[in-house]
Specification:
Order of helices and strands: EEEEE
Strand order of the largest sheet: 1-5-4
GO molecular function: zinc ion binding
InterPro entries: Znf_CHCC
Structural class: mainly beta
Pfam family, one: zf-CHCC
Keywords: Metal-binding, Zinc, Zinc-finger
Shape: globular
Oligomer: single chain
Protein name: Zinc-finger domain-containing protein
Largest sheet: 3 strands, mixed
């Protein structure tokens, strides 16, 4: 989660961000928790079980095996 990200505001992710994991690489040290991979493609969104960050997939879905 970006340092200035509002915790209640969904975080938009694209195919470039897959495989999606939380916390993301740009998360500040104070907000780190064990890494968990999230399936954002199944429903178009996913919520982290540790920090409740909500991720929403935007853009074109990837094709083939990734």
């Amino acid at each position: 989660m970006a340092e200035n990200q509002d915790k209640n505001e969904p975080i938009a992710v694209t195919a470039h961000d897959l495989p999606l994991h939380c916390p993301r690489s740009d998360a500040p040290l104070w907000s780190r928790h064990p890494r968990v991979f999230l399936d954002v493609l199944a429903d178009g969104e996913a919520v982290c079980p540790y920090c409740s960050a909500k991720y929403v997939f935007t853009g074109e879905r990837p094709t083939g095996h990734h």
